[in-house]
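Key idea: predict the complex, not the pieces.
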Amino acid sequence: MSSYDVIVIGSGPGGYVAAIRCAQLGLKTACVEGRETLGGTCLNVGCIPSKALLHASHMLHEAEHNFAEMGLKGKSPSVDWKQMLTYKQSTVDSNTKGIEFLFKKNKINWLKGWGSVPEAGKVKVGDEVHEAKNIIIATGSEPSSLPGVEVDEKVVVTSTGALELGKVPKKLVVIGAGVIGLELGSVYARLGSEVTVVEFLDAVTPGMDPEVQKVFQRMLKKQGLEFIMGAAVQKTEASKTKAKVHYKLRKDDSEHVLDADVVLVATGRKPVHDGLGIDALGVELTKRGQIAVDKNWQTSAKGIYAIGDVIEGPMLAHKAEDEGMAVAEVIAGKHGHVNYGVIPGVIYTHPEVANVGETEATLKEAGRAYKVGKFSFMGNARAKAVFAGDGFVKILADKETDRILGAHIIGPGAGDLIHEVCVAMEFGASAQDLAMTCHAHPTYSEAVREAALACGDGPIHM
Ligand code: FAD
Ligand code: NAI
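Result:
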């Protein structure tokens, strides 16, 4: 039996980051992973492969729509789907191998197999039992199921199947206008599929700024995605090559059917902790089935911690990573901290959509007085030069103190731009602090500065 200071179960962004930080802090560390490769959902079947396909399909879109206007003539490229999947997989492989290298570099033992916790201080992998002074559960999440919808990962697929379809489908029906549905729906729309998104609510991407939701949906429609809103999917019927999607419109209960070659079910994800045996150890769950933790990420069982998608909070890789670093610091006797008020969210469509902090809805609900500074990318020279003038930056600041409370961006490079607002928020900056910071010209980031100026005496270029 080998013994460790820390055994991490799961090697996604939460688990592998926790393991690396534990090792860096001098703790003898192992990480259990049942998949063939390290990196979890994010590197294998999530963030990384989806971004590779988004990038490749965006290049095609640029060639088809914008090249001629810039004087780049010639036939648009055609799609070699097999090669696109090879490119996607090589991106995944180089990242998962990178984690393997980091494990070796930091002397972290990869315990290959599925782990469980037979008793406090012990982790079982296969027939072997290992001792651990501390256990970190980072077992992540999996797609939630939908009653009446049977996934076969060929015709009715989750995001995992959608990342490796045999061919580009002629008709794709996406159930759920959330992040996965819109990112992968965009990929296939750009590759030539007829994409119809069926959404239960009346707006896309629930919880997002309503103005952003409207503009975002309008832009996606322009790119060819069709939307059926306020529609509850009842069931799917699938053969080996086709499917039917039955849905009911909420406004009048009328029933409808859509034909599809492929159906993508993207209606949320749920935490994974079955088979760990933690219920027998008294580990409590939240009402929503996540592992409950205290402010130090410790579960109700002493010495057992949990982080990432398996606990409460946004299901995002960087949130899991931050918790991974923080829990390692706590275990090493230091101070671990995550500022849950400043976790950015990014949707990697074109244009990108990004947000951080409060929305107008949360501020109204809290009865806080706020002001809004908004600037359109139409007034940004760089954005106009690259056909990206649609969209805007919106900054929310406290009405009295001018302190930045949140930001919502739809437009070019939104996923990178949001971080200057994140840093400003971490330092408790005011909108004026951002507005008085010199921003290079011509950059997209000037739109952020102009939105900050709009919180005060007004923007210059609008
Ligand atoms: P996971 O990454 O889910 O890793 C958990 C690991 O634990 C898995 O490898 C699993 O095999 C392993 N495991 C589970 N049980 C056991 C066990 N008993 N023994 C051993 N190993 C076990 N987030 C972003 O921030 N940005 C994005 O662009 C983004 N894109 C996404 C795209 C898609 C299609 C999907 C599905 C998700 C995306 N996400 C994105 C979400 C992101 O992938 C997750 O938030 C993140 O992976 C959570 O990390 P984690 O470490 O908690 O768990
Ligand atoms: P989601 O929660 O973002 O969206 C699910 C959507 O499905 C919602 O709009 C919901 O109203 C709708 N829905 C639910 N039941 C329905 C029904 N019966 N009929 C029609 N619509 C229905 O979930 P999604 O897109 O599956 O993503 C899961 C998680 O993965 C998210 O929490 C997200 O954080 C993470 N993710 C993050 C990405 C990023 O950061 N760029 C990319 C992809 C995933």
